[in-house]
Amino acid sequence: MAKKTGLEILGGIAANILLVPYSMLMNGWAIVKLWGWFMVPLGLPVLTIPMALGLFTIVAYMTYQINYAEIQADSGKGVRYVLVKGFVIATFKPLTAILMGWIIHGFI
After folding, report:
1. Domain containing residue 30
2. What is the C-alpha separation between 33 and 46, in angstroms, rounded?
3. Residue 2 CB partners (closer than 8 Å, separation 6+)
4. pLDDT in tens, 29-88
5. Does 48 map to a domain?
6. 57, 108 Cβ separation under 8 angstroms
7. Which of 37, 61, 78, 91 is the most buried (most CB within 10 A)?
8. pTM higher than 0.70 for the full model?
9. For 40, which DSSP code?
């Protein structure tokens, strides 16, 4: 694989900055619509997009499965690599969920 240039890396960062909010809004809109169709008739309250994004964050956090087999497959890179990768995942998964929840909570 060829080494990426600074411009390619910057383009990837810019794409993520644009796509992440768009993706979140689309997911929030879909959850609001589906919730309105299926849950509101059962007597549950209507969701706003920020509430739907909070719900989405909770469900994603609770259902995302870390692939420890993939981490173990990296064991050829050494125990230190596996421990660092596992530590990074175990640290940043909850921190990312809390950060996203805090941002979304600011809109409620």
Report:
1. 6-105
2. 10
3. none
4. 989 999 999 999 999 999 999 999 999 888 888 887 666 666 666 666 776 776 787 778
5. yes
6. no
7. 61
8. no
9. G
